[in-house]
Amino acid sequence: MGFYVKFWGVRGSIPTPGWRTARFGGNTACVELNIDGNLFICDGGTGLHELGLDLVQRQDQPILGHLLFSHTHWDHIQGFPFFLPVYSSENTFYVYSPEQGENRLYRLLSGQMSSDYFPVDFHDLHAHIAPRVIPRDGIEIGGVKVTSIELTHRGICYGYAFEWQGHKVVYATDNELDLALTNADEARDDPDVLRRAPEHLVDFARDADLLVADGQYADAEYWLRVGWGHPRATTMVDLAIQAGVKILAVTHHDPLQSDDEVARKIDACQARATRFESPLLVFGAREGIELQID
Ligand SMILES: [Zn+2]
Ligand SMILES: [Zn+2]
Q: Distance, CA 43 to ligand 1 centroid (Å)?
C-alpha cells in the first residue's frame, strides 16, 4: 500500500490565486498522507476543496478519513465547508484534537459554519463526523503511530508525526521557531552558528524521512514580522539538520511572495544546508507534488 504525501495547499495566511503564484500555487494549508491505505489529512485550508474533488473522483467506495488540524486560524480551516465528501452520508471523518485541546478544534471547526459565516449548518452535513482525542503518548490509527507536539504560535497550535514501518513524516506548521531558539543571541548575527531548536522539538522531528515545516519568511522579511507567528525558512533548515531529517519541505509561503521569490527563499535554504555540510535535501512545497516515502 505504501506511504505517500501529497500537497494540496502550500500558501500561508490567505489564498493567493493569480499569475504571480501559479507555479507553487495559491491555496492555503492542506497536505494528504496515504499510509498503508489509510487517509490522513493535515489541515483544511482552501487546498482541502481541491482534495475533496479529487477524492470523490478517484474512488467510488465510501471514504474514511482522519482529519488533523494544526489550529483554527482561517488559512487552516477555511476549506472545510467546501470539502465535498462531508456532504455524502456514506463517508466518515474523524477530527482529532490533542488531549490538551479538549475538543476545542472540533468546536471551532463547526463554529465557522454558523449562519453568520456560511449557509449550511455543520449539523446538516451528511457524513458521519466525530471528534477523537490524541492522548499525550500518541494514538495508533490503522497501524500508524500518530503523536502531537505544541508549536510556537499565537493561540494553540500543534504539529503531528506519523510513523509506519520505520518511516516517519512530521507536519509542523505554523511555528515561529526563531522565538524558541536556545541560542538566539549568539546565532542572531552570525550565519555560521547553527540556530539551536528546543530539545523536545528536535526529538519530535528526529530521523524523519520528511519534515513539512512552516518556512513563511525569507531572512530579510522576518525582521519586519517578528511575533507574527512564523519563522525564517532557514531556521527550519537548522532544525532539520539537528534532527537528522532527510528531506525538508518548506511550506506556508508568504502571500506576498511571488513564485520567483519563493524559489529564491528555497535556494537560500539549500545553501544553508550546504554551509553546514549537511546532506539535507530542501524543496519548496508546491501544489500537486506527491512524494513516495517508503
Ligand atoms: Zn497559517
Ligand atoms: Zn496560524
A: 9
